[in-house]
Amino acid sequence: MHLLLKTLLVLGLVSSTLARPEVLSRRDGGHGHDGGSDHDSDGHDANDTDDSPSSSTASSTATNSTSSGSTSGNTALIGMNGDVVCTDLLCIGALVNGSTVQYTLQSLGKSDLGWMAMGFGQTMANSPMVIMWPNSDGTITLSQRKTSAEVMPTVDSNPPRPATLETSLSSLTGSNPKLVYTIPANSDTNQGIIWAFGNVNPNDKAVDATLVQHLNSGPTKLNLGNTLSASSFDPTNPISTISGSTSGSGSGSNSAPAAPSVPLLPFQKILIAHGIMCTVGFLFLLPAGAILARYLRTYSNTWFKGHWIIQLGIAGPVIVTGVILGFVGTHQAGGAEVGDDHKRWGIAIFVLYLAQLGLGTAIHYIKPKSWVVDRRRPLQNYTHAVFGLLIIALAFYQVRTGFKTEWPMTTGRAPIPNAANIVWIVWVVLIPVVYFAGLALLRRQFRQERAPKPDPYTSPETSPRESMNPQRRY
After folding, report:
1. No. of helices (H) and no. of strands (E), the chain
2. Alpha-carbon Rg of the chain, whole angstroms?
3. Angle formed at CA 348 by CA 366 and CA 271, multiple of 5 degrees
């Protein structure tokens, strides 16, 4: 009996010793993508995959369990050249495939996908860019662009390396959509790039669609000479490793953090000042001077003094400053000073304003005979009034194109809030109503102008000074 017990004890010890390496093998496999390769490099178990199917199955199960249900790996990429870099909003993967490079831009799911872009260089200026965005019909637009300054890039009709959209490799579903394109390889192994992520979709399939300024951007680098291993991140699915495990940063979330505010660039601050000054000058001061003249001229001889102080003394410096700021801001932005309709109309309206000042001065100092002798209102007076109204009307149009079209086009930022448009509509209705209501005083004005002037030598109520300076009306 004792002999039988000793025999069973020895057999138990031997069986437990033989079983221990399999347990250790499973633990090694549980470390993830490095488990298999490290185990093979030890030498003695290199052929376990072929000779022991059950052991292979156990190791595979352990590895996948650490991936938390992630997608299967892409081991065919092992040994190829490529790299992955991640930012706070997206990951970019580069896979060298012979004479071309496949680039994958994948959202981290922290903000709505409007558009994603990368450029070849370290600054926004003069870097060839590839910009992509999804469309409402499920298609994707690829736009190659370039810019000479910190402004919205425009389409490059002859890019140095034409890019090809890979629709079949792109994915617009899930919390981590990705956009893929290929481009001919260049000689750079350490590829310097810039990236940008926008959360406002252009809602336009055209390659020259207007883009709202990026949520964030910056420079980074990709090592195209890097040899991919099982532990490398997958350039075709940048948020995951080649072995299949998913990066925690790329998992996405239903409660994405609030989008960070994008600070204004110096030239954008100058353009804002330009818009404020010109709006105050053309839409507040000039109408105020015109309305003052319309109402006060039939009640007081001081109307002209108030009129020219507002139109020239106050509005003049404000408008001139606003126009200068427009030129400075456009120059700093790298755009042409007369490159679009808004700029050309702005210059034209400014020239009209200067001409109006000259006409008003001439009317004040040069009195035609028809006015001095016959008391008939001369044509130049009507011209001055109509000219002034025309300038104000054009200024209303100009201000609206400035905040609705020129601002987003020049800066790449979101359009001005609709509240500005509401104020503009109220103002464009209110000013004409107030001015034209004053036309009810025209009969009183014309009657005063046609009334005979008292003889300075017979009327004790008129001083010699007043007789030499008839009441100024035009």
Report:
1. 15, 11
2. 38
3. 125
Q: pLDDT digits over 375-420, tens only?
A: 566 778 888 989 999 999 999 999 999 999 888 877 767 778 899 9
> What's the DSSP call for residue 245?
P
Cβ-proximal residues to 229 (8 Å cutoff; 6+ apart), any chain = 37, 78, 242
Residue 319 · residue 281 · CB < 8 Å: yes
Q: What is the three-class DSSP state of 154?
A: strand
Which residues, listed in sequence order, are joined to residue 171 by a DSSP beta bridge? Answer: 178
Tokens of 155: 């389409």
Residue 236 has what pLDDT? 94
Phi, psi of 402 (to 5 degrees): -65, -50
Q: How far apart are CA 140 and CA 451, in angstroms?
A: 75
pLDDT tens sequence across 4-60:
444 444 444 434 443 333 332 322 333 333 333 333 333 333 333 333 333 332 222
CA distance 154 to 425: 32
Burial of 432 (0-12, 13-18, 19+ CB in 10 A): middle
Cross-strand partners of 144: 130
Half-sphere exposure of 36 (CA within 13 A, CB side): 20
For the chain, percent helix, then strand, then coil, each to nearest 5?
A: 45, 15, 35
